[in-house]
Amino acid sequence: MTNDPTSNKKAYLIAEMSANHNGDFDRAVAIVRAMKEAGADAVKLQTYTADTLTIDCDKPDFVIGAGTVWEGQKLHDLYASAYTPWEWHAELFALANELGMDCFSTPFDNSAVDFLEQFDPPFYKVASFELVDVGLIEYIASKGRPITMSTGMGSIEEISDAVAVVKKAGVPLTLLKCTSAYPSPPSSMNLNTMRDMAERFDVPVGLSDHTLGTTVPVAAVALGASVVEKHFTLSRKDEGPDSSFSLEPAEFREMVDAIRIVEQALGEVKYERSDKEEASVVFRRSLYAVADIAAGEALTNENVRSIRPGHGLKPKFLSSLLGKSAAKAIPRGTPISADVVESFDVQE
């Protein structure tokens, strides 16, 4: 079985081309190169034709209604303009691999799966809209490759059905939290759902993000996302079906850099001092003589205090020291240690 490329310690960052090539192969090539420069781990394509997704029909059911950036368009017309020509795939896969990136795709029917198999993709993506097509998911899973699946619009029951199909096939699965709105307002993201999905379905989780900007995916990584997927365009000024909610190269790089900083900051569960903290220990409080103390004189709140710096005993020993006698003269400004106090044994 193919190893899952998403199973590493760093978040796996996917740049989604979708329809942002605008039907221009040279632009598609430029996008892949820009993805590499922006720090993407993988290039994601979509493999379909208008006829594998829908039928050419003028009935109202086949015209996109209000609430999306594609309002008023006929489904067949949208997909005919947005699809990535299948004859481009070989060169785009080869280019991505040459540049050191993974390349994979979302197949939208069985014929697309069969077509993609020739490129030995590291894994397959199931789109949110296909989450309910358990027959397609079963066919994808039958190829034995890891699957990353978006969960936009999915109820617990629908996600459970899809997960069961993949687990029955025995292939690795990663679930992506997704809000299927284009663009998605941050208030609709409910990123805490990722944690519930991870526990409920016992799989790695990530984010397929359609918000504007980079804040939400960075937050997702802080919450445990192992995968982040973002649409990528050379410029939002270029008209296209997906350009309005895609990141430009500099923005994607900004996201990558911020995520890598967050990963460094998350670190591990650790209570020991870091190397960088050692120089600051001296600024801690500790017990010092704040007045001259003669040999045999009692230690009191007037001649011993907890102050900075940190060369003396820890402040927690103050109550145990009070009333004991100085074993020798202790000049003002001397750190209090066990050997300057009579009959005092430090017990940590």
Explain what the structure shows.
With 348 residues, the chain is of the alpha/beta class. The protein folds into 2 domains: 221 residues, TIM Barrel, CATH 3.20.20; 66 residues, Antifreeze-like/N-acetylneuraminic acid synthase C-terminal domain (Type Iii Antifreeze Protein Isoform Hplc 12). The chain is 30% helix and 14% strand. The strands form 2 sheets. The protein has an 8-stranded parallel sheet. The protein has a two-stranded antiparallel sheet with strand order 9-10. The two termini are 54 Å apart. The model has no long low-confidence stretch (mean pLDDT 95). Its EC number is 2.5.1.97. GO terms for molecular function: N-acylneuraminate-9-phosphate synthase activity. This is Pseudaminic acid synthase.
Quick recap:
The protein is an alpha/beta fold and 348 residues long. It contains eleven helices and ten strands.
Write the layout of secondary structure elements.
Layout: E1 12-16, H1 25-37, E2 42-47, H2 50-53, H3 75-82, H4 89-98, E3 102-107, H5 110-116, E4 124-126, H6 134-141, E5 147-150, H7 156-169, E6 173-178, H8 193-201, E7 205-209, H9 215-222, E8 227-231, H10 249-266, E9 286-289, E10 304-307, H11 318-321
Parallel strand pairs: 1-2, 1-8, 2-3, 4-5, 5-6, 6-7, 7-8
Antiparallel strand pairs: 9-10
Helix pairs in contact: 6-7, 9-10
